[in-house]
Design the sequence.
């Protein structure tokens, strides 16, 4: 089990109504309307847990990449992570599967893969999912995303 030596920060969120409810967090103020994806029979007119997990995992992974970058002396400036979280039936319940695609401009894909694999060892989300969730890590040449650096 991975347990922090001390807590540096805690996030608190309150949800009501499940996948078709509302969620909020304070400091800073975040309020979200939740909705089951249309592919799963819902309206799709709101945020869903898989989107939030993908955002959280991608951001956390990229943060851990800074540590791996220093350790391996592989640059990560301008890096991007595309986190894809899929959900589907598993027995009488559901399970998720994650794919993390990583790119770093002007760094060879082989080096990016090495950086991504080390990052996967360090990232708190990766530690939390290890042994429980199928996570694929893949270096790619480019991520077309519409996000400005």
Sequence:
């Amino acid at each position: 089990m991975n347990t922090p030596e001390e807590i540096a920060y805690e996030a608190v969120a309150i949800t009501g109504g499940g996948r078709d409810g509302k969620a909020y967090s304070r400091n800073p103020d975040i309020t979200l309307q939740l909705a089951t994806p249309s592919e799963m029979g819902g309206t799709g007119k709101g945020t869903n847990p898989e989107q939030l997990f993908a955002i959280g995992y991608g951001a956390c992974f990229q943060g851990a990449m800074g540590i791996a970058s220093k350790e391996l002396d592989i640059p990560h400036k301008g890096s991007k992570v595309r986190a894809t979280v899929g959900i589907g039936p598993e027995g009488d319940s559901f399970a998720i599967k994650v794919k993390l695609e990583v790119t770093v401009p002007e760094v060879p894909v082989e080096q990016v893969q090495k950086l991504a694999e080390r990052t996967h060892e360090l990232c708190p989300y990766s530690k939390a999912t290890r042994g429980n969730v199928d996570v694929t890590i893949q270096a790619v040449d480019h991520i077309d995303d519409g996000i400005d650096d």
